[in-house]
Amino acid sequence: MTEALGTTGIVSGGARLVCDVSGEGTPVVLVHAGIADARMWDPLLPALTAVHRVIRYDLRGYGRSSLPAGTFSHADDLAAVISSFADGPVHLVGASLGGRVSLDLALARPDLVRSLTLLGAVVPGFDPDTGPPAGWADVEAADRADDVDALADAEARMWLADPDGTRLPPGVLDLVRAMNRTALVNERSGVGTEPEPEPVVGRLGELDLPVLVVVGSLDLADVRLTAGLLAERVRGAEHVVVDGAAHLPALEKPAEVGAVLRRFLARLE
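^ that's the sequence the OP posted. Answer follows.
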């Protein structure tokens, strides 16, 4: 039976981070993508909460979490979340930006991380030249016009490989637009900034923990190349391609991603 522990908040570096905790068992921490917030994990929760304590949170400047003035580190915030809700190392699941933050923490604080699942992750220092993706012209035009609504829409359609809004189930694009709009408003405010992350592409061989790399078959070319790089350079990494998913496979194909993640975690238990 799943025990809902509810919504709470912690303070990290002056920011209030809103966290949702549910389930009982080995802790799993979910770190969302840069076009999303903690709601992107909603469809995945049933696959995890039956056997895990699941902690998900809105990163600083996303969703319900605050963005105080000054510089900050998403990895430091993640460490604070883990320390607040777990007595030992956790299974980390990070998507896109959340994957980069999870990777940064796994390299800096391996004592906090039991395993690492990276979905469409960013690897600082690896920037393959794949050319502009389909939909990039719409993103640039909305950015030049300073039209946040149009920008949230253009980015959602580009990242989710849904240019005319017909590929995904009803409501998915609307949710991503709404999540992304909050992030864009905060980002464009300039109130709080994260310094450029240190390149870690040369340190992937240092990872000494189980790693699962997941990527959608419809994701952008550079993201798919990054997944291949991770699978190649991280010892023992498992590489899974989710057919018919773009940049948010956990939201687009939760049954498939849930099954893959459950098997991965069960082997570690």
